[in-house]
Amino acid sequence: GSRTIRNAIEDIIDESDIKGVVVRIYSPGGSATASEVMWQGLRRLAEVKPVWVSVGGMAASGGYYTAVGGDKMYVNPSSIVGSIGVVGGKLTMDEAYDHLKLRIHTRSRGPKSDMFASDEAWTESELADVRSKMTETYELFTSRVQQGREGIDLSKTAEGRLFTGTQAIALNMADAIGGLDDAVLDLATSMDMSRFEVVHYPAPKGLEEMFSDMFMGLSAPMTSSAMAGPFPMLAAAREIIGPHRWDAVAASLEAAMQLRTSPVQLVMPRVILFR
């Protein structure tokens, strides 16, 4: 997440032996705040070391927001690039609650303290606030793109459009076709480095840490805040959908869960149909 990237950036800035950085991105987007934090981190890093970006299968919406923080961007011909847009909304499940014969009683203090409640739609006032935030976020997003991609024509590239890597090159959304190895070698060549070592940040997890992560969910106490979070809902959804289909919808459902606390997201368009 953004915190991991931010910590890695601080370590890299302080490491004098690191002369240049290639950031690998494979992301459909996510939190608008996290995207801005990572963009700022890359720009801060770029002040002291060259920062190039290698896009894997996807750098869409918040992923592209982060990618334009680099000095140069490589994409694969089939990479999904763009989705310069903002999504807003919340999960409203009143019909599902009725179907399950559940009754929700909300207690709140303050005029808008319950605006994320899942049992009723937004009021006109709440909807106006969200639309205002969406407009503000979109304007910041497009300004970051213009900063990172000088001369880009937003009338052809923004408003949520998606492009292949090849199309992105033609539209000045990226700089070159190539994979991660190409980006690393070209960066080294541009710095006249015939011999170099590649160091991965964040560092790969050790066996002990991997086992710790695997069993953390079983050993950690279930606090009231965790019970109220999205994880029980995602776990239930995984049981319903099944493990074989889960990978295809996990990112979409996770983005939907984020709407419970943040009504504005930078994610690529997606549709989930339940039959």
Question: Largest sheet at a glance?
Answer: 6 strands, mixed
Distance between the amino and carboxyl termini: 33 Å
Q: How would you classify the helix and strand content by structural class?
A: alpha/beta
According to CATH, the fold-level topology of the largest domain is 2-enoyl-CoA Hydratase, Chain A, domain 1
Kindly state the percentage of residues in helix. Answer: 40-55%
Radius of gyration: 21 Å
Described by the principal axes of the CA atoms, the overall outline is: elongated
Unreliable runs, pLDDT <50, ≥5 residues?
207-230
What order do the SSEs take from the amino end to the carboxyl end, as H and E?
HEEHEHEEEHHHEHEHHHHHE
How many domains, as an integer? Answer: 2
The count of helical stretches stands at: 12
The CATH C-level name of the largest domain is Alpha Beta
List its traits.
2-enoyl-CoA Hydratase, Chain A, domain 1; 2 domains; three-stranded antiparallel beta sheet; alpha/beta; single chain; 275 residues; elongated
Describe the protein in words.
The protein has 275 residues and is of the alpha/beta class. It has two domains: 2-89 and 126-204, 2-enoyl-CoA Hydratase, Chain A, domain 1 (Alpha-Beta Complex); 216-263, no CATH class. It has twelve helices and nine strands. The strands form two sheets. Strands 1, 3, 4, 5, 7 and 8 form a six-stranded mixed beta sheet that branches. The protein has a three-stranded antiparallel beta sheet with strand order 2-9-6. Strand 3, helix 3 and strand 4 (72-75) form a beta-alpha-beta unit. The longest helix has 25 residues, at 124-148. The radius of gyration is 21 Å and the shape is elongated. 27% of the residues are buried.
